[in-house]
């Protein structure tokens, strides 16, 4: 394992609010949106990593899972989480190791997802495992890895390979059985499949989550007037070429 801090990388402080320019970023900057849960509720895309820093900057921890050479460049796999229900995974390829890690951290912050936790058996104490069996796989290319997360009794711990175990720990899952098949020696695909399984924990809601939710306006609709007032467009001046006299 490689620590991302070894490359001299530090977390972006809360002062980065000054660089937020998207609609979501301006609402976060002006404290109109006060938690990540409001963003997840309306499925708003996070396009600036500073949005994640505002809410989780002090508690986020990152770790480079692997740095591997690809042709003439380096590919970095970085996991990030706050050990309290939020986890992200980023992959970046660059000519320099430090640049690859920095880019992977940024992508991990953009892909951070909430983690639903549940119980095995009686509902005693805090949620400690996954709420149900979930399966994740590598989408896209030809990845063959398939990871299945299975609820486990309290005190079992995380029964898994080192890479999925690290991601599950960052997701604040204390007890979990895992089952994996395919070419699990490919670390990148194993990490992606584990992250996909964790992100699916909110795809199924148990009856105890069947609470009535009062639908409200999207932040973009609720704060339309505020967005119009704070919008600073950049005017583009076009210069016309002088007319050529023809005889």
TrEMBL record:
Record carries keyword Ribonucleoprotein: yes
InterPro entries noted in UniProt: Ribosomal_Su5_D2-typ_SF (IPR020568), Ribosomal_uS5 (IPR000851), Ribosomal_uS5_C (IPR005324), Ribosomal_uS5_euk/arc (IPR005711), Ribosomal_uS5_N (IPR013810), Ribsml_uS5_D2-typ_fold_subgr (IPR014721)
One example of a Gene Ontology biological process annotation: translation
Alphabetized GO MF terms: RNA binding; structural constituent of ribosome
GO CC list: cytosolic small ribosomal subunit
Family matches, as Pfam families: Ribosomal_S5 (PF00333), Ribosomal_S5_C (PF03719)
Segments forming domain S5 DRBM: 71-115
Record has Iron as a keyword: no
Keywords: Ribonucleoprotein, Ribosomal protein
Role according to the record: Component of the ribosome, a large ribonucleoprotein complex responsible for the synthesis of proteins in the cell. The small ribosomal subunit (SSU) binds messenger RNAs (mRNAs) and translates the encoded message by selecting cognate aminoacyl-transfer RNA (tRNA) molecules. The large subunit (LSU) contains the ribosomal catalytic site termed the peptidyl transferase center (PTC), which catalyzes the formation of peptide bonds, thereby polymerizing the amino acids delivered by tRNAs into a polypeptide chain.
Family indicated by similarity: Belongs to the universal ribosomal protein uS5 family.
Subunit and partners: Component of the small ribosomal subunit. Interacts with zinc finger protein ZNF277 (via zinc-finger domains); the interaction is direct; the interaction is extra-ribosomal. Interaction with ZNF277 competes with the binding of RPS2 to protein arginine methyltransferase PRMT3.
Protein name: Small ribosomal subunit protein uS5
Organism of provenance: Myodes glareolus
Taxonomic placement: Eukaryota, Metazoa, Chordata, Craniata, Vertebrata
């Amino acid at each position: 394992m490689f620590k991302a801090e070894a490359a001299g990388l530090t977390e972006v402080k809360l002062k980065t609010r000054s660089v937020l320019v998207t609609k979501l970023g301006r609402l976060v900057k002006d404290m109109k949106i006060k938690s990540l849960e409001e963003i997840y509720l309306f499925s708003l895309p996070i396009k600036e990593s500073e949005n994640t820093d505002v809410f989780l900057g002090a508690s986020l921890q990152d770790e480079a899972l692997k740095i591997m050479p690809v042709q003439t460049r380096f590919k970095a796999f970085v996991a990030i989480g706050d050990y309290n229900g939020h986890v992200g995974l980023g992959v970046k390829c660059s000519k320099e190791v430090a640049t690859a890690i920095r880019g992977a951290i940024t992508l991990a912050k953009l892909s951070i997802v909430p983690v639903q936790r549940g119980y095995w058996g009686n509902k005693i104490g805090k949620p400690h495992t996954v709420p149900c069996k979930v399966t994740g796989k590598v989408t896209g290319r030809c990845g063959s890895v398939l990871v299945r997360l299975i609820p486990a009794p309290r005190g079992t711990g995380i029964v898994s390979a080192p890479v999925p175990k690290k991601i599950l720990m960052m997701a604040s899952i204390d007890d979990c059985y895992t089952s994996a098949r395919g070419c699990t020696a490919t670390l990148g695909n194993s990490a992606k499949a584990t992250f996909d399984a964790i992100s699916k924990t909110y795809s199924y809601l148990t009856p105890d989550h069947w609470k009535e939710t009062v639908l409200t306006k999207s932040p973009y609709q609720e704060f339309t007037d505020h967005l119009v007032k704070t919008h600073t467009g950049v005017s583009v001046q076009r210069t016309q070429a002088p007319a050529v006299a023809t005889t």
